[in-house]
Amino acid sequence: MKPLTAQEKRVLELVSQGLSSIEIAQALGVSAHTVDSHRKNLLVKMSARNSADLVRRAYHFQVLSLESIETENLLSHGAI
Q1: pTM of the entire structure?
Q2: Do residues 14 and 26 lie in contact, with contact meaning Cβ atoms separated by under 8 Å?
Q3: Of 42, 49, 62, 63, whose CA is between 20 and 30 Å from 6?
Q4: Are 58 and 64 within 8 A, CB to CB?
């Protein structure tokens, strides 16, 4: 697997939370087109067929962890 950029990893984290490209774009302050480009790059780099497969592979290759996502969710909802 090719290394992910910091922005690709951030997009991946938000994809794993179920956000759409438009929601991710708003969260990151970029265009939806930019997010779609990052998503396409992620699919290629991780040899994934779709978003669900992408997230599954990210956990398998330990690019994402449940702990990091749970912490991120708590931060975004003001619980921490």
Answers
A1: 0.81
A2: no
A3: 49
A4: yes
Structural domains of the chain, with CATH: 6-76 (1.10.10.10)
- Residue 17 identity: Q
**Per-residue tokens: 27:** 């969260």
DSSP secondary structure letters along the chain = -PPPPHHHHHHHHHHHTT--HHHHHHHHTS-HHHHHHHHHHHHHHTT-SSHHHHHHHHHHTTSS-HHHHHHHHHHHTT--
The residues, any chain, with a CB within 8 Å of residue 65's CB and separated by 6 or more, are 59
pLDDT digits (tens, 9 = 90+) for 50-79: 999 999 999 999 999 876 555 555 455 554
